[in-house]
Design a protein that fits this description.
Length: 207
């Protein structure tokens, strides 16, 4: 599905070159959000960016590198939306309240964005040797945000453990919602997660 075509790239080494690279990446990312990962290629990306595949190879290390960076940008958009909801909703609220604010952003986000990120995780599971970075980088992006939602007085180990639990659970809920369509069951499970977080936070306060 994804072409590998390294060899053309040269470092631009200038602010202008970096600005051009960011511009191209934004255009390719917009195309990915609309059209998904299926049949992604350098030539398709070049059409979306209004350039040639050789120009893309000047700025990126092939199609897989471009795909990784575009998926990264899409996750950044998801994270920005979620954190904006937390900031506007209740910045000094409990951990459970913050997670509650994030959830509607995940289930109600643009269909294209959710579809592409689901496809990226599926690709990482289907061909981990080639695409493991699509999954590994997801955790690297999400976990610091979830750690930041935890009470500041918690130890780093405890924050990390709770963040890992929240990330894995939300991923499971999103997958279950996609596969089964059981929104009622997922909603019940999400409320159970919030109660678990409330107990975790209460235990920390008591300690």
């Amino acid at each position: 599905m994804v072409e590998t075509n390294a060899g053309y790239r040269r470092s631009t080494g200038t602010p202008r070159g970096e600005a051009r690279r960011r511009e191209l990446l934004e255009r390719v990312t917009d195309d990915l959000a609309v059209n998904g990962l299926v049949d992604f290629s350098l030539r398709r990306a070049a059409r979306a960016a209004g350039t040639t595949h050789k120009v893309l190879l000047y700025h990126f290390d092939g199609a897989e590198d471009l795909l990784r960076q575009a998926v990264f940008k899409l996750r950044e958009r998801r994270i920005e939306n979620a954190m904006a909801a937390v900031a506007e909703g209740a910045p000094k609220s409990s951990l459970a309240d913050r997670v509650r604010l994030v959830w509607p952003m995940l289930v109600g986000e643009e269909a294209g964005l959710a579809r592409v990120l689901d496809q990226a995780m599926g690709l990482a599971m289907y061909d981990p040797e080639r695409h493991r970075d699509l999954g590994r980088h997801a955790s690297e992006q999400y976990l610091p945000i979830l750690v930041g939602l935890c009470p500041p007085e918690w130890s780093e180990r405890r924050k990390r453990g709770v963040a890992e639990m929240v990330l894995a659970t939300l991923r499971g809920f999103l997958l279950e919602r996609l596969i089964s369509g059981d929104e009622e069951g997922v909603a019940a499970g999400f409320e159970a997660l919030l109660r678990a977080l409330e107990r975790e936070e209460a235990a920390g306060t008591a300690a």
